[in-house]
Write a structure and sequence with these properties.
This protein is of the alpha/beta class. It is globular. It starts with a strand and ends with a strand. About 35% of the residues are buried.
Length: about 575
């Protein structure tokens, strides 16, 4: 009878999946084992997790351990041998690879596989666990020789989840905070025809998004271009996410990228810092001017979602130089700006030099920085609070008009967010659960306190932002005006007639749920509406408006904005 192996991944969200499990399964599928992939989330209760594992009655359990699931895995390890005493336990992943002996000291486990685990896992299974080696380190073959991880039956398992794909492993850069900078992480990539075939297979799954997990997707520029051209010709609705380095982009890249259909590609770009001393110390030597120029060119294309990353807590970056980095990245106007706090990971050059930097960090995952030579814990707290506000107001995309205008009242974006942070503290507001209405009310109160003379204009800005994203036909109480009720009453019949004329093929009852906008301030009317007096927003079902997004149609004095 075949021994049963559970390959267990505990993900941060239900929509995530763990590609490492699929690689391991495929790499040993010719061996005499019954292998089952089990994916859970960190939000499930411990009793639910161990109950499900117990009911599957495994002989061997292999956990994939990362910073987001370390605590959950540790809690499972404390109890799993109590209920499955004969079951062998294997650990793998970055969290256990660099100090495996500490895990043996704390938990009853049998083997730890360090580094890229395919070859080590296969070696262990070939020996049928007779190996006396508790810690297994075995180099993988070139990445092009590692089998494609997914099979037909995974389609149902991965339904409605992100699909992760690697065209390469390792990285050509040696950033000191990243595990891919290690000497044992060799850069290796798959062959183009391999990649095309594998992507075609995945596209048959009809995923919403395929995320390339390559550390630097365009590290091999010619390969990246070939893949971009290949994907640009696909008519599937799937989106593709890449982490790229802007300094590697050439003119022929932009010639390809400008032709990519709107919304098909997403680029994540790690800026990390604009401070030259910091960049040099973390071994990320880049031409800042070239990076900035190429990011601007990408953003100007307007067809690719751009996500920029900053890291707070790097060497030689104090609160003032970080402010400069923040403002420089913010001024590029990316679709998203992630302000992350440094994580000090085992196995990195950063961790090895923590004494040199007077670096203090959390004892347990995610090992977030607490302080260093340049930033106090108070500074870290301040930046963490700004990070939350950045997510609420900028990255949500729900305050676009208001943010653009409010920035004009401050000398820099950082100054605005820092002043808003202080206001939040003074009002004792919890920003951990901020729905739009609560966030907008906070912003209105902030404007009222510091720029009350502009309040009427900014209430228009907030209402405009509400109309663009809300699926309702009413305003929040604090943004409502008596005039809106009268406008709706006076124009509803005429609106329906005009709508029928313009869109005879669509259901005219949709106008019942329209929201009417008229500017209260002359400034808003002049600057945003060319002195138009009435805009009507109609929320269409997605199937009816995929081709009508952002369409703005003039009909006499009424203007439809079809959302």
């Amino acid at each position: 009878m075949k021994k049963k192996i559970l390959l267990i991944g505990i993900n941060a969200r239900w929509t995530h999946s763990n590609p490492a499990l699929y690689y391991l399964r495929t790499y040993v599928n010719d061996l005499n084992y019954d292998i089952q992939i089990c994916e859970y989330t960190i939000n499930q209760t411990l009793i639910d997790l161990i109950s499900d594992i117990y009911k599957k009655n495994p002989d061997i359990i292999a956990f994939s351990v990362y910073i987001w699931n370390t605590k959950t895995v540790q809690n499972i390890l404390k109890d799993i041998k109590k209920i499955l005493p004969e079951c062998r336990i294997i650990l793998g992943g970055p969290e256990v690879s660099y100090h495996p002996e500490q895990w043996f000291e704390k938990f009853k486990i049998d083997h730890i596989i360090c580094g890229n685990g395919e070859s080590g896992f296969r070696e262990l299974l070939l020996q049928d666990f007779d190996s006396k080696m508790k810690i297994i380190k075995k180099a993988n073959p070139p990445f092009s020789e590692i089998p494609f991880p997914y099979i037909d039956s995974d389609k149902e398992l991965l339904k409605n989840k992100y699909l992760y794909y690697e065209a390469s492993r390792g990285c050509i850069f040696k950033c000191s905070y990243c595990l891919s900078s290690r000497e044992d992480q060799k850069f290796s990539y798959r062959k183009l025809e391999q990649i095309k075939s594998e992507l075609d297979f995945l596209l048959d799954f009809k995923p919403k998004i395929i995320k390339f997990v390559d550390r630097t997707f365009n590290a091999n520029p010619e390969l990246a271009r070939s893949i971009w051209i290949f994907l640009s010709k696909k008519t599937d609705l799937t989106k593709f996410h890449f982490e790229i380095h802007p300094s590697l982009l050439k003119e022929n890249d932009f010639e390809i990228l400008e032709k990519i259909p709107l919304g098909k590609f997403q680029f994540e770009i790690g800026i990390q810092s604009f401070n030259n001393d910091t960049l040099k110390e973390i071994r990320r030597n880049v031409d800042v001017k070239k990076v900035t120029t190429n990011i601007k060119k990408l953003i100007e294309l307007k067809n690719i979602h751009i996500h920029l990353d900053l890291i707070a807590g790097l060497p030689f970056e104090d609160i003032f130089t970080f402010q400069n980095s923040f403002d420089s990245v913010y001024d590029l106007k990316p679709d998203q700006l992630q302000l992350g706090l440094l994580k000090v990971l085992d196995g990195t050059f950063m961790k090895e030099n923590s004494e040199k930097y007077s670096l203090k960090y959390q004892s347990e995952s995610p090992y977030m920085i607490l302080s260093n030579k340049w930033l106090s814990f108070g500074d870290i707290v301040k930046l963490h609070e700004i990070e939350k506000l950045l997510e609420i107001y900028y990255n949500s995309g729900k305050f676009e008009t208001t943010l653009i205008e409010i920035q004009k009242l401050f000398t820099s974006p950082f100054e605005f967010f820092n002043k808003l942070r202080k206001f939040v503290i003074s009002q004792q507001i919890d920003t951990n659960s901020m729905i739009w209405i609560k966030s907008a009310k906070l912003l209105q109160d902030f404007i009222k306190k510091y720029h009350n003379e502009k309040l009427v204009f900014f209430r228009d800005c907030l209402r405009w932002d509400w109309c663009k994203m809300a699926k309702s036909h009413y305003y929040p109480d604090f943004l409502n005006e008596h005039i809106f009720k009268k406008i709706k009453k006076d124009n509803s019949v005429r609106l329906k007639e005009l709508f029928k004329q313009k869109y005879p093929e669509l259901d005219s009852s949709l106008v019942k749920h329209a929201i009417y906008f008229t500017p209260i301030s002359s400034k808003f009317a002049k600057e945003f509406l060319q002195n138009k007096t009435l805009i009507v927003f109609i929320n269409f079902p997605q199937k009816d408006i995929e081709h009508r997004k952002s369409l703005f149609i003039e009909l006499d004095e009424i203007h439809f904005n079809l959302k």
